[in-house]
Amino acid sequence: RGFIWFGTEDGLNRYDGYELTHSIRDRSAAGGLPNSWVAALALDGKGQLWIGTADGGIVRRDPVDGRFHPPQDAGGKLLVDPRAAVRALRFDARDRLWIGTRNSGVRVLDLGKGEARDYRRDLTNSASLSDDSIHAFAEERNGALWVGTEAGVDRIDSATGEVTRFGERLRLLRGRDAAPVKVQALLVDSRGTIWMGTEVGLARFDPVSATFDLLRHRSADATSLPNDYVSAIIEDAEQRLWVGTANGLALLDRRTDRFTTFRYSPSDRSSLPDNNIVTLFQDRTELLWVGTRS
Questions:
Q1: pTM of the model
Q2: What string of pLDDT tens digits covers the 294 residues of the chain?
Q3: What gap in Å lies between CA 226 and CA 20, rounded to an integer?
Q4: Residues contacting 161, CB < 8 A, separation 6+
Q5: Positive or negative CA dihedral for 237, 240, 244, 248?
Q6: Which residues contact 223 (CB under 8 A, 6 or more apart)?
């Protein structure tokens, strides 16, 4: 319907172009939001909004009465722990809901069948998740899902469920003695390149050559990444790549790997409200929305 939804640490907001409507947890109201910390949002194939919360699991918003309902199977059994700490949501091309949690790995819901499948870290199995702390998802054209974790990035074959870990290759970009690299943002762009937001820069994986490289901040170069902490990545309708960092919004020139950076300026009312970027979204009118820390 053209609404813009904002998830915040203090509830769910809906903007209709004129005013904001605010929803928070109300213990006395049936069908209310289960937790006011909204960590993730996703739309299903029917245009229904799904909300992932920090410690209240996930719910679907009924577009008719505005109530929130947790997913259940045909027998009324909950498909997701109502105390789950959710960090990421994504509907894949088959309209299955992928749920990334803070400490319980990944749960995939086939809502039509009322079925769930879990992916967890198994210390005895290298073909399991690299870590149970999940931050982000992205999907390839062939349906494979990339999963950003506390310990790197994994690829899940959607047909077989096979998990391939890439975290070690990502870590080696920083050196043999480097710590695991957390991947907190993911994007598969229109060319099939996989982009990863980390705490040590913007990583790139070329699926054709199967190679990784890392774009980093260089203090002496104003055209480099403005900060190594990358929290959001989006490709706009003109196939331009925008990167949200802890010190500004950067537009990448993919021909030269140089960045143009946009920051807050106290003398410019049209500048960003804050340099710490947390999320990016483009609406159907091709307007870019930038969510910041403050």
A1: 0.95
A2: 678 999 999 999 999 889 989 988 877 677 899 999 999 999 999 999 999 999 999 999 999 999 999 999 999 999 999 999 999 999 999 999 999 999 999 999 999 999 999 999 999 999 999 999 999 999 999 999 999 999 999 999 988 999 999 999 999 999 999 999 999 999 999 999 999 999 999 999 999 999 999 999 999 999 999 999 999 999 999 999 999 999 999 999 999 999 999 999 999 999 999 999 999 999 999 999 999 998
A3: 32
A4: 117, 119
A5: negative
A6: 258, 259, 260
Q: How many angstroms separate the CA atoms of 206 and 227, rounded?
A: 22
What's the CA gap between 16 and 7, in Å, rounded? 15
- CA torsion 266-271-274-276 (nearest 10°) is -130
Give the CA distances from residue 186 to residues 14, 36, 124, 146, 235, in Å, rounded to whole numbers and listed in that order: 25, 25, 27, 8, 11
Q: What is the 3-state secondary structure (H, E, C) of 246-267?
A: CCEEEEEECCCCEEEEECCCCC
Phi, psi of 117 (to 5 degrees): -135, 140
Hunting for tokens 């994986």 — which residue is that? 205
Query: Comparing C-alpha atoms, which of 179, 221, 220, 169 is closest to residue 200?
Result: 179
- Measure the N-to-C terminal CA separation of the chain; round to a whole number of Å: 28
Q: Residue written as tokens 């700490």?
A: 85
